[in-house]
Amino acid sequence: MATLDGFGRPADVPWWVGLVLLPLLNLLAAFVIAGGVIWVLGVDPVAALKVLVWGAFGDTDLIGFTLYYTTNFIFAGLAVAIAFHCGLFNIGGEGQAYIAGLGVGLVGLAMGGWPWPVVMAVAVISAALFGGIWALVPAWLQAYRGSHIVITTIMFNFIAASIMNYVMVDVLIAPGQQAPESRAFDPSTHLPSLQDLLALFGIRSRTSFLNVSFLLAVACCVAFWVFVWHTRWGYGIRTVGQNERAAVYAGIRPGHMIMLAMVISGALAGLVAVNVLLGAQHRIILNYTGGVGFVGIAVALMGRNHPLGIFLSALLFGALYQGGSELNFEFPKLSTEMVVVIQGLIILFAGALENLFRPQVEALFRRRLRAAA
Amino acid sequence: MIVRGIAVAGLALAVSTGAAQAQSVPAVIFDMGGKFDKSFNEAAYNGAERFKREFNVEYREFEISNEAQREQAQVNMVRRGANLVVAIGFAQAAAVTKNAAENPNVRFCIIDSVVNAPNVRSYTFKEHEGSYLVGMAAAMASKTGKVGFVGGMDIPLIRNFAFGYEQGAKAVNPQIEVFQNMTGTTPAAWRDPTRGGELARSQFDRGADVVYAAAGATGLGVLQAAADLNRLAIGVDSNQNHLHPGKVLTSMLKRVDTAVYTCMKDAHENKWTAGALRLGVAEDGVGWALDQNNRPLISADMERRITEARQKIISGEITVRPYQQ
């Protein structure tokens, strides 16, 4: 292993520093600050942490909810990551997932009576189509018209929200009802919960939203890894992401790769709808995404755009999301807004400030390595 | 076993004293707009607090902050041992329907919607009757012959407020002009005071001098606009007269507090029954507010005519038509 090999090139630090130590340090910092805020509010931070951990992993039900949210975050994180590999910042996961809800919802409403595997297969395709097409327009604008993808995807979030408002309020609202919700899907279309599966292993669980979409999410992680690192298209996407001009010299057309990456990104984001609508809510409701697409950005950042990392960070965010909501039940003093603040702090430290401790920690390791050499 | 132990420890850690020994364990789930919206949800909160004071029984509470939470919030309450879940607001109807079927041993109360199940008690209100009374007050207080209405989310429930209001105003002055605006079509319309204020201002600009807000927390903007422009507003659900004394003509009281209180009390005293209750003026479910804050605004003549109309609604001499059916 090279330590100091020539001018200007910093020495290598052990691989686990970037992948394990730094995320843990960031997480710790976030917890310390969040704990301080909780303490200022007059709640014992240790008790709050206990409830947070209990709320996420305390019994099989709670673990079920944690994994249910993890499923959402895996899809959203993979969606952001594939775009990252192509050098694109897809902020539109929220809108792509939301519009995909229409695709899933129409399938759920129309296919009453069909067995669930068929419904799920059609719903997955429909969700991927709706989400993918929703991402295709900003992708085309980026690839061939130079409109910045950050601007266009965020605009498309608003367009998606407006379209869904219209559809829910004026078209799909269940008759004789005041809330803008569609009628419930036929029970035959409901995805089986994983409780039924766990029961085979003797694990008893009553009610959680966890369903077979979780297995789909895990499969997507594997497929993501194969696609990005072991296919021609994945190679093309990564090349364009690292150097667009070099890609052209290599015979890769950047425009195609940008469109491909964004369609896959939108399709992955769209799968959130399968988990939430077909797996849990069993009807189309307004704003069912609730910010999942945005959390996906933090998940991808923290997971270093690698499926294994994304799985782990999605699990962390799932646990925070579930445990955080339990906090609100146990400590009325910690209002809903407060829980959002705590989650925001963790996103800030783990996602946005990922380089906060990096220079110091890496310098420390280099000094030690140099001393050893 | 260990997992269960931790779970129990976690619960024990959180449950404060009092709830454990009583056989009724109530939980209240507020809807979007928030517990302290000074209107609909706050009325529910006041009812729950009254129950807590009188019976010394703690209750659990939760505020919905996004649409996807409703179902899980109820499930969470049941898992925490709640055997009475009071769901505030029609938006929770779908979740109540589902959870009531899955938890036949848990009692549910729902406000503003009807869920037909053997373990659900539904409370709805004759908002049109209460709105009729404040509509009369508005018409009598108006000097311009124009009054306004700002609704929250555009749904039949809120149109029912507007419909009764208009009937009341026209009963006093058949020529009166009633402006109507809705804040939006989604639940976000319950918590947008800025837009509420703008809608009220536009109605004031068009010549209205009394505006009735039926819009949850959005209504706070309407009341503020009236106070700023030195006009009059009418509050809703809770008594909002004190928010801007002398600038709030009256408030249409919708006794969500009584409904929540009665539901919790009946469950506590084992007198709870399922079924649909519809509360109007006769049941004191809706009414109008008169206190020291708006006393100077209500003349003796106004008070007499409104009280008379109230009696006539009870006796059936006046029928206020609801928006639906």
Structure, described:
The complex is a heterodimer of chains A (373) and B (325). With 373 residues, chain A is mainly α. In chain A, helix 4 (93-110) runs parallel beside helix 6 and helix 8 crosses helix 9 (232-242). Chain A has helices spanning 15-40, 45-57, 60-85, 93-110, 116-145, 149-171, 194-200, 213-230, 232-242, 244-249, 254-281, 292-302, 307-330, 336-352, 358-372. The model of chain A is unreliable at 1-6 (pLDDT under 50). Chain A has one domain (44-353): ABC transporter involved in vitamin B12 uptake, BtuC (Orthogonal Bundle). Chain A contains 15 helices and no strands. Chain B is of the alpha/beta class and 325 residues long. Chain B folds into two domains: 2-125 and 256-279, Rossmann fold; 127-254 and 294-315, Rossmann fold (3-Layer(aba) Sandwich). Chain B has ten helices and twelve strands. In chain B, strand 8 (210-214), helix 8 and strand 9 form a beta-alpha-beta unit. In chain B, helix 5 (127-141) packs antiparallel against helix 10. The radius of gyration of chain B is 21 Å and the shape is globular. Classes of the chains: A mainly alpha (373), B alpha/beta (325). At the A-B interface, helix 2, helix 3, helix 6, helix 11 and helix 13 of A face helix 1, strand 2, helix 3 and helix 4 of B.
